[in-house]
Amino acid sequence: MIEYYTAFIILKGGRKDQMKSMKFFILFAVLLFVVLSYRTYEQYKEISETQKLIVLHESRSLAEFISAFRQTYQDIFLREHIAITDTSLNLLPVKTLTEISERFASRLKGDVVIRTVSDRPRNPVNKVDRFEAEMIGYFKQHPEKEYRFMEKQGTYSYIKPIYIEKSCLRCHGKREDAIPSIRKRYDKAYDYKLGEIRGVMHIKIKDRDLFAGLYNDFLSALLSAIFFYLLLLVIIYLLIKRIRLKEEEYLQKLEEDIEKKTHEINKQKETFETLFEKSSDGILIVDGGKFIECNEKMVEILDYPSKEALLEMQASSLVPKFQPDGSNSYEKSKEMIALAEKYKVHQFECVYLRANGEEFLAEVTLTPIVLGERNVTHTVVRDISDKKRAQQELLRQKNILHHQAHHDALTGLPNRTLFADRLEHGIELAERHAKKLALFFIDLDNFKQINDSLGHHIGDRVLMVVAERLKAKIRKEDTLARLGGDEFTIIIENLDDERQLASFAEKIQEVLSQPIHIEGHTLYTSCSIGISFYPEDAKNANDLVKYADAAMYKAKEEGRDNYQFYSAEMTALAFERVVMESSLRQAIKNEEFVLYYQPQVNAKSSKMTGMEALIRWEHPRLGLMLPDKFIPLAEETGLIIGIDRWVMRTAMTQIKAWYSAGLNPGVLALNLSMRQLMDESFMEILHECLETIGFEPEWLELEVTESQMMKKPDDAIVRLEQIKAMGINIAIDDFGTGYSSLSYLKRLPVSKLKIDQAFIHGIPEDKGSAAIVKATIALARSLGLKLIAEGVENEVQKTFLVEHGCIIMQGYYYGRPMPAEQIEKKCFDIC
Ligand SMILES: Nc1nc2c(ncn2[C@@H]2O[C@@H]3COP(=O)(O)O[C@H]4[C@@H](O)[C@H](n5cnc6c(=O)[nH]c(N)nc65)O[C@@H]4COP(=O)(O)O[C@H]3[C@H]2O)c(=O)[nH]1
Question: Residue-wise over 381-420: b if at least 16 C-beta within 10 A, else e?
Fold first, then answer.
């Protein structure tokens, strides 16, 4: 900027200098002209004077010569007494001189004229002219003057008076005294007195040739002076022009630079103005509490009708009297300005007021600046109320997310992650303060059944009730968490007396055994509790959890609805479960499973109508294992899908083999887990098995347990419809144990009900069982479904069933589950 102003000043100065130098040049030229003119004039005057002197000198010499010549001749005439005759008359000095003068004048072409004249001439030729007459008058008045020398129109006149001398009187005195020949001849020009003016000698010189040399020199000097003058002027002019040209170039460049700079500055100014006006923040320039400038955004933020209206306001009207922290706004602003002055800039948050009195939170940046020569405060105001709201919302969302990440969505209790944290923290505290800590592992005993039979939404409600009841029982400092499913934990910190724990466990059992009323259902639950201690049982969280879990399993094994404190032996039990899971995985790979078949018989004809395939595990160490030992674990871990696929393929291959061998094994009943049924690839595999094995669909009957089916009845119906459409029969296993509603039963695409063996065992003595069996038979009839009873062990049961209309049976009475060769031997022949 400084450079720009310097250039601007130089340009202005340059332009002035150019004008100055031009003026100077003209002045110089005029001055030189005046000097030279004066000098020429002086020279001319000098020459004129010289010329005048020469002419005077020459004229005087000539006049003196002529005077002497005349005197001499005159004296000769007088001395020799030469009479004036016609002949001698021509020798008279006056006459002779007149003639000589004429001839002389004619020779010099009239440039030098010598006249000897009188106002009373005897010869009219010598008559004075007007000028000469004036001269005679002059000399008469000025007798002291010897001559007069004058210049008129380039002609010099030298006039010398001729006085009457003594000798002159002989001819011009008294006539009677005059020489007789004169007297005789002339009758005028007498009576002159001695010293009287007889006439004048007038020498006129007008021939300039005499001074040509002088004038030529003058002229050539004048011409060369003019020439040098002009040359000097031209040189000076060229020099000035050259300097001016350079200057002009320089100034032109300077002008261009200035123009460019001006353009840039204007652009910058425009940019800054735009930045200022269009800034996304409000800007206010404050000079000692007075607003001197603001931008559009400021007007918009504060909601004033115009800039002018805002600028008229007092600083105090833009803020409430007090800030939210209770500080006085005026005091605060003073403090903030002081800080801005100290640190050059200061940013802070402040509540502002809009024109309508609405308060908003602003982020304010104060910067002391110098504007012109004034110290002002540049104030940037950013409305951060939205930002603050968004931040708070974000914080709220974050808190929600944090809460969600650490809490169980259903019950709002801490989840597994938060539980782990709290447990770690609790152990740390217990260690630091030498306190004890107890961990309760609570699992509902019959939750799976409720969930499976009444659906998830009821199950969820049960869990919520359980959570509430547990919450009501714990202290503030204890942590109740839900780890998933029906597993709850309680961390009890600051434990003083372990004996209290038993009563606490009992209280939990009691509260959870209270009936739960949901949607018209009255549900009864119980729980199994495992308890472990810090530091006696374990000193780290992992072990503490593992041991409480093991104790809980022990409680389950002990017949459920009880609590167990951890003991070292329990670890082995838990270990067994882990080992079991891993060996189950190995079993699929190692083909350790075998299939047993149990006949299904028509009690009236005693003929085998089909058989149920039942899996056995030939454990390499533990020997033959029944499905109850591993099927729940397989279902829990999802391994059941692989197992059931193996069973399906193996059994179908066997049955097909029998059919192919010309035997009649009847219908193959296969247990189908819900997980397998709902598996995406199940239908594909089923098709593939039927096709590759060449198995007829009507040879197959799939058994789905009632409780499993009721977990997702709608989904199950869709899938079972597809199966039924293939021509495959579907039977409901364990019928009577679940909570099947009749409406669902009607919609299920099943063709057979299998009465659960629990009811068969009690007949005919157990009235309840007998009533259920009879009701189930009646229900099957009314729905047009086939029936089969399982677990028939004796004749009485068989007779009861036959009497009431259930003809098809399965049970030890007809045969236990047996390997394929055995059933082939025994039953194919018998039945
Ligand atoms: N006390 C008594 N029991 C009798 C009598 N008649 C049959 N049983 C037993 O009752 C169970 C009948 O099978 P289930 O109800 O489908 O119940 C089965 C079935 O739900 C499941 N299971 C067996 N094999 C498979 C399989 O391959 N896949 C699936 N998903 N589950 C299977 O394991 C359960 C138990 O099977 P198992 O131990 O073989 O036990 C069989 C069978 O041995 C009797 O007269 N008295």
Answer: bbbbeeeeeeeeeeeeeeeeeeeeebbbeebebbbbebbb
